[in-house]
C-alpha cells in the first residue's frame, strides 16, 4: 500500500479521510491496521456502527479504535464518523434518507411516509416482549421515573414525560447535563431512570444513567445499537430500528421509533390501571382546559 496515491471513492464520492488512512497504513500497529482495513472495505456501514461494533468487526479492543481515530487526527470516534459521513453522503441525501432534489413533492411525501412507516414496523419486529413486560411492571411500581436525553432525544423525553404524567406516574425529564446528573443522584431503589440515545454513544445521557445506577435506581436504555456504550450502564435495553448517520441527527423516523416503544409501554400501563389512569387523565385535562379560551 505504501506510496499508493490513487483517489478512493465510495458511491462515487472522493474521500480525503480514506486517502489519509491509506497513506498512514505503514505507520499503524497490526491492531490499528485491522481497524483501517474494516474502515476502507466497509466504509458505508462504519458511519452507522458504534465503537463497540467496529472493534468487534476488526477483532480488536475499543481502546485500539479510539487510538486509531486519534492517530489519524481526530479527537474521538464520533468526530471521525462525522468527518467520514460528510465526505461520503451526497448533498441531496443529507436532508432525508433517499429523498433527492429531483423528486417531486408527491414522490418526496411518499418516500418520507414509507420511511416513517418502516421505522415503526421494523421497531415492532425487534420487540422483546419479556423485556417490555418487565419494563411495564417496573414503571407501574416506580416511586420516581426520570427520562434523560439530549438533542432530539430530549424532545422525545419531554413527550414521554407528558404521556406518563397524564396517567398518574411521578415522572420528570431533563436535558441539561448538570441537572440530569444532580437529579439522577437523588434517585434510589424503587426508582427508574430511562436514557434515550439513538446512537447509544451520547456521553451526557450515559453519564446520567451511570449516576442513577450507582444511586440504586433501575436503569433502562432505548437505543438503536445493542452493542453500544449506553447498554453497558443499563439494566434493560429496548431497541429501535431507525438508525441515524452522523449527518442525520434529528431524524424524524428515529424519533418516531422511540415514541412507538414508549407508546406501547404507556398504553399497556394505562389499560392495566384503567381507573387510576382515567382519574388522572380527567384531572390533567381539566387543569389544561382551564387555561384555554
UniProtKB/TrEMBL annotation:
GO BP, sorted A to Z: carbohydrate derivative metabolic process
Gene Ontology molecular functions: carbohydrate derivative binding; DNA binding; DNA-binding transcription factor activity
Leader peptide range in chain numbering: none
Residue ranges of domain HTH rpiR-type in the record: 15-91
Gene3D superfamilies: Glucose-6-phosphate isomerase like protein, domain 1, Winged helix-like DNA-binding domain superfamily/Winged helix DNA-binding domain
UniProt key word Transcription regulation: yes
Record's protein name: Putative HTH-type transcriptional regulator
Originating species: Brevibacillus parabrevis
